Amino acid sequence: MEMIALDKELKGNSYPGRGIIIGRSADGTKAVAAYFIMGRSENSRNRVFVEDGEGIRTQAFDPSKLVDPSLIIYAPVRVLGNKTIVTNGDQTDTIYEGMDQQLTFEQSLRSREFEPDGPNYTPRISGILHVENGSYSYAMSILKSNNGDPSSCNRYTFAYQNAKAGEGHFIHTYKCDGNPLPSFEGEPKLVQIPDDMDAFANMLWGSLNEDNKVSLFVRYIDIETGKYESRILNKNH
Length: 237
What we know:
Layout: H1 6-11, E1 19-24, E2 30-38, H2 42-45, E3 47-52, E4 55-60, E5 77-80, E6 83-87, H3 91-100, H4 105-108, E7 124-132, E8 135-146, E9 149-160, E10 167-172, E11 189-192, H5 197-207, E12 213-222, E13 228-234
Antiparallel strand pairs: 1-2, 1-10, 2-12, 3-4, 5-6, 6-7, 7-8, 8-9, 10-11, 12-13
């Protein structure tokens, strides 16, 4: 698979929707996760990321303008022991609770489908990072309608064992802008992961469409110690 330049990929797509990037820093010492959200409606754009324990949650920037919280207010990132869960919806909680009951990442998601927001039927994208005793692997999932037909849910899981230094994978909800919005297609895209967290965060933030971007979260986890650093960037502040 050809490695793509993330900045070029993002600048060439005005509306990838919500995106998850997971990988390993170039020097091999850090597990890396990034999650961004975008919005076209006032309700979607009226959000910020805030810290919540070891994870984050979305909240309304201006509570008086919040219309329907059902699909926009959730915890995108939660930590369960040595596992970090990153998703674009409340399936974060489904995965957390399932894995806490000894289900796998894939099994936990079997109770969920794409979002009930026809005609888009936004895919649910999820990722999990597993860091333990100096080893690191990760997996990504997408649950989407069958080419816009909500009577069938297509489920894909991609697992990356012994994650390679300098490499990551990028999955997002929408192939591009449109009405209805076309779902992401194919495998997660192979991308480069640098050592410098701030440079990575700034590159991502600067590459997202200025009108549509809302918030970005980036975390670098030390694979030996499990200690982490995070950055949050919000358009509304």
